[in-house]
Write a structure and sequence with these properties.
The complex is a heterodimer of chains A (350) and B (163). Chain A has 350 residues and is mostly helical. In chain A, helix 3 packs antiparallel against helix 4, helix 3 runs antiparallel to helix 5 and helix 3 packs parallel to helix 11. The radius of gyration of chain A is 21 Å and the shape is globular. By secondary structure, chain B is α+β, with helices and mostly antiparallel strands. Chain B has a domain of 102 residues: Alpha-Beta Plaits. The longest helix of chain B has 19 residues. The chains are: A mainly alpha (350), B alpha+beta (163). Chains A and B meet through helix 1 and helix 12 of A and helix 1 of B.
Chain lengths: 350, 163
């Protein structure tokens, strides 16, 4: 652990944490939107995407944010105004609450929480509330249908996600995300200590289930039934414009980034490199420079995973509502329960 | 039952998008960056309708056949000098107004088809958008200017009956 030369007062620490949280949420969101949504999607459709604002359109996002900020803050006549107005904030807040438990290095973390993953999955489902009240408060039947579909979908896919995480928790023997990272980098697989044991190898089924569930939690295609723009006119977002739409938009991609952080911690070894490389044995013996390298490693893994999420998003057409529910309840949940059983048996037996 | 594909369709789809991405990075996109680069429209593209005023007899066929009623014609009769010496002066229609409202036009081309005197032509020119909708009403001098952009009529096919 670091002993800093200067003592930072409590308010200073809090300020630093808030700034760090903003960076950890908004930096991935901006990068994802530019790199994947603007550029990768365009290239996959054989076009160039935004090219005018800044070199290669890199300032397009700034232009878009500026456009949204200056639009009128509209609310429908019959809407429940106060609820209608806080709904996007509720969605974004769940992202900020989620990033709080994610460790970016041995000391680079916001809070060291003993049941971090439990807390993380719990606050992640706050966004369902935001979406549901957005749909309900809009006083619009499309929004309501979209909100209800979103609620049904998010609840259905929350389960396989939690069950997939249980496998990791059993194997790591801890719910603390920091401990899960340490476990993956100190365990050995095939008797090779230089590779560590990223759980993506042993929990490959869980990883696939988790990524599918993340895709559905983010309501990204092919799971975009709730916002189906061709039939529901963007579902629960129909009545939102300007600044509040921007919050929904940031929330969508920031959550993608944060879930990718979570997936890289649970399955890809998080910020760590196999501890055997430098002769570290536990968390306290990790060198301080990992606090700088760790976030970079995390960011790389996050980009990789969001790249996959977006790649799938741009490739597949939308699920029908019944297919979507059937897939969650009849395929993902049984398979993930089986995965837990096998993991538990092997954990006890081996 | 169609034969099972060798590669599952889900993976194949991912392959198509990824392949297109690399092809776009390597060879460039299929699109062009419009205001900087312009594609030449095909020679028979329906861009704008041009009026060859001398041929128009104000017969009103185009105006009447227009589904959108976007062609406005006004004319008056006047006497023109006789064709041969000693003949009677001829009575001709003189065009006072020939407007096409491109805010209404749906580019069906019926007016061009129906014109019996070859007074209307398609031009591939397409850049005539206006900030004010009223400016989309092109009068006969403007429609006449478009004649410069009308491409030469293609040669008749061998053996085609000549008029």
């Amino acid at each position: 652990m670091i002993q800093l030369a200067i003592e930072i007062p409590y308010w200073g620490q809090s300020l630093l944490r808030v700034l760090g949280g903003l960076v950890a949420v908004l930096l991935p969101a901006g990068t994802i939107v530019y790199l994947f949504l603007f550029k990768m999607m365009s290239f996959m459709q054989s076009r160039l995407g935004p090219m005018e604002a800044g070199p290669y359109g890199s300032l397009q996002l700034v232009a878009e944010v500026g456009k949204w900020m200056q639009k009128e803050d509209l609310a429908p006549e019959a809407a429940d105004k106060s609820i209608f107005k806080i709904a996007p904030l509720v969605v974004l807040v769940s992202t900020f609450l989620l990033v709080v438990v994610i460790p970016f290095g041995p000391d680079a973390l916001f809070t060291d929480f003993e049941v971090g993953i439990f807390y993380g999955l719990a606050v992640a489902s706050i966004s369902v509330l935001g979406i549901l009240i957005a749909g309900w408060a809009s006083a619009n039947k499309y929004s309501l249908l979209g909100g209800l579909r979103a609620a049904g979908q998010l609840i259905a896919y929350e389960l396989p996600m939690v069950l997939a995480v249980v496998g990791v928790v059993i194997q790591a023997g801890s719910m603390n995300l920091q401990q899960i990272v340490v476990a993956q980098n100190t365990y050995e697989i095939f008797g090779l200590d230089w590779i560590g044991m990223p759980f993506v190898i042993t929990q490959c089924v869980g990883f696939v289930i988790f990524m599918i569930a993340v895709q559905a939690e983010l309501t990204q295609p092919p799971f975009d039934m709730p916002i189906a723009e061709s039939e529901l006119v963007s579902g629960y977002m129909t009545e939102y414009s300007g600044f509040r739409f921007l919050i929904f938009f940031i929330g969508e991609f920031a959550t993608a980034g944060v879930f990718a952080f979570l997936a890289s911690i649970l399955f890809l070894g998080g910020w760590g490199i196999p501890f055997a490389w430098f002769g570290w044995t536990d968390l306290d013996s990790v060198d301080n420079w990992m606090n700088v390298v760790g976030p970079v490693i995390m960011l790389t893994k996050m980009m990789l995973l969001t790249g996959i999420i977006m790649w799938v998003r741009f490739s597949y057409p939308r699920f029908r509502e019944d297919q979507l529910q059937t897939f969650a309840w009849k395929v993902l949940i049984p398979v993930s329960i089986l995965n837990i059983a096998v993991t538990a048996i092997l954990k006890v037996a081996v | 039952m169609p034969a099972k594909p060798k590669v599952p369709g889900l993976l194949k789809g991912l392959g198509v998008t990824m392949g297109t991405m690399f092809r776009t990075v390597k060879d460039g996109a299929n699109t062009v960056q419009y205001p900087h680069v312009k594609e030449t429209p095909p020679i028979r593209a329906r861009g704008v309708i041009a009026l060859h005023e001398e041929n128009c007899t104000a017969c009103m066929l185009c105006s009447r056949s227009c589904p959108d009623w976007c062609i406005y014609i006004e004319a008056h009769k006047q006497l023109a000098p006789p064709r041969r010496a000693g003949g009677k002066p001829r009575q001709v229609n003189h065009l006072d107004r020939f407007d096409i409202d491109y805010a209404l036009c749906m580019y069906c081309g019926i007016c061009v088809e129906v014109c019996p005197f070859d007074a209307l032509f398609w031009s591939p020119e397409y850049e005539y958008s206006e900030p004010r909708i009223a400016d989309l009403l092109h009068d006969k001098s403007k429609l006449g200017e478009w004649m410069e952009t009308v491409p030469e009529a293609p040669e008749l096919e061998a053996g085609a009956a000549k008029k």
